[in-house]
Design brief:
297 residues, mainly alpha, 3 domains, two-stranded antiparallel sheet, 12 helices
Length: 297
Amino acid sequence: MANALEFIKSIAARAGIKDNQEFDLALAGSAADTLKALELPESVITQVNTNLMDFNTAKSNLDLKNHFNGMAFNGMESSVFELLKNSGWDDAELEEIKAASKSTGQRMAKIMEKYNSKMDDAKKHKPGSEEYVRKLSEAQKALEDAKAKFEAEKFQILETQKAKQQNLWMRNQLASVQWNDAIPEIAREATYNAAMSAQLSKLEAKLVFDPETLSARLVNAKDETLPLVVSGKEFAFNDLHSVILQEHKLMKESGGGNPNPSPTPPFTPPSGGGSTQPKQHPMVANALANLNIPSMG
């Protein structure tokens, strides 16, 4: 048994939520006492921890890996077998290859083994087997084309997966940001990305994401083998993150000790009448435009 308060905090921690004042306040006072008094069955806690995945558990889950790899490679493998069939390989040979191996890599190796065997047979034939050799040459070209297509599509899949991993990683970095109220929630990620692009351009830097370690580093845009150095010190992503939030005023202002700071002054339309709108953060207009959402004003 565990109390509901600790359970909610553990789920929030898995989602990357920490040092969040609004969240802490929501769980304080009488709410905390009520949640502490509520005991949850161990079976419920175990089921949630088992089935509710965060980013780190999802990326290491074998079932998910096999599922998405299967979706990715099945289509490419079908193209390879179709090319081989059109180049003269009979159905019995292709079915033998499919039945002999369970993985795509093993089947590709079996195709190469079959091809080399065909080449050896061709060399043993007497002169006059030009047609046989011609068909083998066509089969070789078809195999090379299939391999090239397979590698190109495999590269594209890996790049797409890397981009998705980077987006998830970036959202995790932004999960605990105390956002400026002038930035609507739907535009926050785009606004941050626009600010980061501007800052990278200013520093003549490039962000390089490593999907294996789920980390990012900054390099010199003119020579990616060199780390980014600012004022004689290597500049890390955390340094860039802090600069973006502060220089572009993306964080909620502290209010200088005043617990109820004055709200952002309203914007008054130049022509008479009409409703007022909150003053927009200077980078939000571009972010909303990129999202194809009408600007706030």
